[in-house]
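Pilot study result, target chain (174 residues):
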Amino acid sequence: MKYKLTNDSKTLSDGTIVYRIECVTAFGNIKAGDKGGFIESKNNLSQEGNAWVSGDAWVYGNARVYGNAWVFGNARVYGNAIVYDKARLHGNAKVYGNARISSCSWGNSPLQIQGSVWYFNMCRRNQISIGCETHTIKHWLDNYYQIGKLHNTDDDTIEEYYRYICLARDMYLR
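Predicted structure:
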C-alpha cells in the first residue's frame, strides 16, 4: 500500500466528501508521511506505479488517476475522467465527464495561434490543424499554397499561415 486516506476531509458543494491522502510507502520523490491532495475513495488513485495527487487537488466521483500521472495544484478530476500514463495536470485545470488525459512527450508546449482567419493548432508532434484541414508539417510545407487557394484564401493570408507552419517546423522538427 503506497498511501492511506486521512481524517482530514472537505465537503464539496454537491455533498461529496474528499479525504486527504498520506504516503505510507515511499516511491519516486514521495516520502512516507508526505501529505497529498484529496480523493473521495481509494478507487480514485491507484496504489500501483508513481501516480499521485498533491497540493489542494481533488479527484472524486468515478474519476481515476494511475500509471505515473500526477494531479496537483488546484486541479480537479471528476465524473468518469481518467488521468494516466505520465500526464501532469495542475494549476486550476478541470478534467471531467469522460475525458482521458495521458502524457505526450512534446518537448515544447503545444502551439496554438489565433490567425487572422483560422486557428492554427499543433494537434500532435508532427500534425497541424488550420481551420478544418489537418496534415503533417511536411504536407503543409509542400502544399500550403494549393490548400489556401482551395479555400479561396488571398495571398497575404496564405503567407501569414506559411510563417506559422515554418514556426512549427522550427519548434518541433529541428
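One observation from the pilot: The longest strand covers residues 3-11. A full batch analysis is planned for the follow-on phase.
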